[in-house]
Write a structure and sequence with these properties.
Catalytic activity: ATP + protein L-histidine = ADP + protein N-phospho-L-histidine
Enzyme class: transferase
Number of helices: 18
Low-confidence stretches: 1-6, 587-599, 674-679
Transmembrane segments: 29-48, 60-80, 92-110, 116-133, 140-159
Shape: elongated
EC number: 2.7.13.3
Number of domains: 4
InterPro entries: GAF (IPR003018), GAF-like_dom_sf (IPR029016), HATPase_C_sf (IPR036890), HATPase_dom (IPR003594), His_kinase_dom (IPR005467), HisK_dim/P_dom (IPR003661), HisK_dim/P_sf (IPR036097), PAS-like_dom_sf (IPR035965)
Length: 724
């Protein structure tokens, strides 16, 4: 805001950027004083000469001084050079006025009103000299020169010393008093300017400025920083309508409404707005895309809002950072969705990630390489570069990747030529101006690289988060390729295991079947009692061998991964009843003498709630059969077995003897058995089937003191209540 803010005085304020705001205020003040002086000098002369018509005080001289002042003011409008030196010349005019009046007062012998006139002029002009002064030096010079001129007039003029002495003493007194007063004013102004300078610097650093809207006049006052934020020249005071028009068309009604509510309802506001409205007719530099935070508080006097004061803060950089972070979050979310897609294979995911990286980094080429025997081969790629296509290869020595694999972190090249790559074989081969790449490490060994590039240099350097983004892609590729390698190895192991299981099924069961047939024939013939007891023992041994073979096959095939085509929804109760029936038709087990260890005929199966499972029904029935056999073998003919639903699975428990050891989980170890005749594979089979489904299996003691097995992590649908 200017020092002279009354609208009629605005014509006195100079325009143009060659002057600072303080210099403009000085010129404005001197113009006003020059025009006032041009009027006052002749009028003052008439008043002084009126008591003595014979006084020596020619009017033509006064009119000449008035013309000098008017001419100086006029020249300041015509020339920038004059405006820049206007304050100095205005002070010179003060010296001329003082010298002229001292001469006139001396010629008139300090008689009449001239002694009072010189004291009055000597008391006024130092304040004019002090305008814009940075120190007391010009003031002391003027006071000294004025006192010297008055003293010289008294000493050498046509006046007795006794008559001139009061005037000289008055000049000395005025000089002392004015010097003290002006010194205090300049000191206060210096402190105020220092505070204002600190305030301006704080505004500059925080990109924040202050503003005020006067309700009665509708005027808007902006600080320097507010004008800079809005792209307005210094010294321009916009109207309220112009201030609102500087904002984005969609935000103009918003700020208008906030001002109205602040005035009418005394409601303060704090809102983020966009600039970019109409250009103002004052050399306005439009700030499209710039954001400001507008805050305002109504000022209340006598119960009414007289003004609204607040601040504008440039938040464009913060908004830009927020935009970058949001893009970063969206890119990471997209990366997660791609890598977590269970329906997509590695090749599809890699291609989608390459396209995502190209878009996020703003680079047209993306590719995944395989490095073997000092050769780089492009495995997957996206973009039109002829040498960066799937299947293309080149010596590693002529690729950017040779440097990538030597870096602990990703390699970044913002401007290849500026960074010394112009003569490098890689730049000569591919002519890439920008590049970022990271290593792919599989099982501790180098596999290749994940890279993005462009033919043109990148305008902005690669940010740390962008490097991390590429490194995350490379780490994902490392993990996926490691998993593929592990799965391939597991597949080979399963194939060998299948071959072994086939060998067991064929090469062991064939002679076992022959022995069983011969044993049946031997039993049909008459044999002594002792021989028949030996044949019974052989029968039991052959039966046990058959059970072992069956358990080994079940453990081998039951633990293999289950494909989606094998999964369907089945009722737990139906599968449990089928398994119970199967256990009831089998001989659960025999002791060394051939007696049954347990039978399903006397045992009881109960259900505690029903549910449906998404599973392989055949394998789950085998799981339940083994759990039921385990319960009958250890709980006897009268054991009660309960099958029930859990929130994420099911359980099987009994009221038998429970676990013999301190660690129930030990029962899942292959070969573990509390019976000398047990194979120790039954519960291992249960665990392998559960793992094949991706389920968890745990063992604990039931409330009745028996064994309880819980299967969790199951896709369960509750459908019923308890029954037996």
């Amino acid at each position: 805001m200017s020092d002279l803010a009354w609208p009629p005085f605005s014509i006195l304020r100079p325009e143009g950027e060659e002057l600072s705001g303080e210099q403009q205020s000085d010129v404005q003040a001197y113009r006003l004083l020059g025009l006032l002086g041009a009027v006052v000098v002749p009028v003052f002369g008439v008043l002084l000469a009126a008591p003595d018509p014979q006084a020596t005080d020619p009017m033509w001289a006064r009119l000449g001084l008035s013309a000098l002042l008017v001419g100086l003011v006029g020249a300041s409008y015509a020339s920038g050079a004059v405006r820049r030196r206007f304050a100095v010349w205005a002070r010179g005019a003060c010296y001329i006025l003082m010298a002229w009046f001292c001469s006139v007062a001396t010629l008139n012998g300090f008689a009449g009103s001239y002694d009072m006139g010189i004291l009055l002029l000597y008391g006024i002009l130092p304040f004019a000299v002090a305008i814009g002064a940075q120190s007391m030096r010009p003031v002391w010079w003027f006071l000294g020169c004025g006192l010297l001129a008055g003293t010289a007039g008294a000493a050498f003029g046509p006046v007795r010393a006794a008559e001139a002495l009061p005037t000289v003493g008055g000049l000395a007194t005025v000089a002392f008093v004015e010097g003290v007063v002006i010194w205090n004013q300049l000191d206060a102004r210096e402190r105020l300017e220092r505070q204002n300078d600190l305030f301006r610097r704080a505004q500059k650093l925080a990109n924040i400025g202050a503003w005020e809207y006067e309700v009665s006049s509708g005027e808007v006052f902006w600080t320097r920083q507010v004008r800079e934020i809005h792209g307005l020249p210094q010294g321009y005071e916009p109207t309220a309508e112009e201030a609102i028009a500087a904002y984005h068309p969609e935000d103009q009604p918003v700020i208008q409404g906030m001002i109205e509510r602040a005035v009418e309802e005394e409601v303060p506001f704090d809102r983020e707005l966009r600039l970019g409205g109409e250009a103002l007719p004052v050399g306005h530099e439009q700030k499209e895309g710039r954001w400001v935070r507008a805050r305002g508080t109504p000022q209340i006097e006598a119960g009414e809002v007289t003004s609204v004061r607040g601040t504008f803060q440039d938040i464009t950089e913060r908004k830009a950072r927020e935009h970058v972070l949001e893009n970063e979050r969206e890119a990471l979310r997209s990366m997660y969705r791609i890598t977590a897609d269970r329906e997509a294979g590695f090749e599809e995911k890699a291609r989608r990630l390459i396209d995502l990286g190209r878009e996020h980094l703003g680079l047209p080429y993306g590719f995944l390489t395989r490095i073997t025997d000092e050769t780089q081969e492009i495995v997957f790629a996206s973009g039109t570069h002829p040498l960066l296509q799937p299947g293309e290869s080149c010596p590693l020595s002529r690729s950017y990747c040779r440097n990538t694999i030597q870096e602990e972190r990703s390699l970044v090249v913002q401007d290849a030529v500026a960074e010394g790559w112009a003569g490098d074989p890689a730049h000569q081969t591919f002519e890439l101006g920008a590049y970022v790449g990271a290593q792919i490490i599989v099982e501790g060994e180098l596999y290749g690289t994940f890279c993005f590039a462009a033919e043109e240099p990148r305008e902005q350097a690669f940010a740390g988060r962008e490097r991390v983004f590429v490194e995350l892609m490379a780490q994902w590729a490392s993990y996926e390729l490691g998993q593929r390698r592990a799965k391939a190895q597991l597949k080979r192991q399963n194939a060998r295991l299948d071959s072994f299981a086939g060998l067991v099924a064929h090469d062991l069961r064939n002679p076992l079947n022959v022995a069983t047939g011969r044993l049946r024939l031997a039993r049909e013939e008459r044999a002594p009692e002792k021989t028949r007891s030996h044949l019974a023992a052989v029968d039991r041994s052959l039966g046990r061998m058959d059970e072992i073979i069956e358990d080994v096959l079940t453990l081998t095939w039951g633990g293999q991964d289950i494909g989606p085509e094998e999964l369907s929804t089945h009722g737990l109760a139906a599968m449990a009843e089928a398994s119970w029936d199967q256990v009831g038709t089998d001989q659960v087990g025999t002791d060394q003498d051939g007696a049954d260890q347990g039978s399903a005929e006397g045992a009881t199966l109960q259900f505690e709630g029903a549910c449906r499972l998404r599973c392989s029904a055949e394998r789950v029935r085998r799981l339940l059969e083994n759990l039921f056999r385990n319960a009958i073998e250890h709980g006897g003919d009268t054991v009660t077995v309960r099958v029930g639903a859990l929130s994420d699975g099911f359980y099987v428990e009994d009221d038998g003897a429970g676990f013999s050891g301190d660690d129930p989980e030990a029962v899942f170890e292959a070969g573990y058995s509390s019976s000398d005749e047990g194979t120790g594979l039954g519960l291992s089979i249960v665990e392998s089937i559960a793992k094949a489904h991706g389920w968890s299996l745990s063992a604990t003691q039931s409330e009745a003191g028996g064994a309880r097995f819980e299967v969790t992590g199951v896709d369960v649908e509750a459908v019923g209540s308890a029954h037996s």
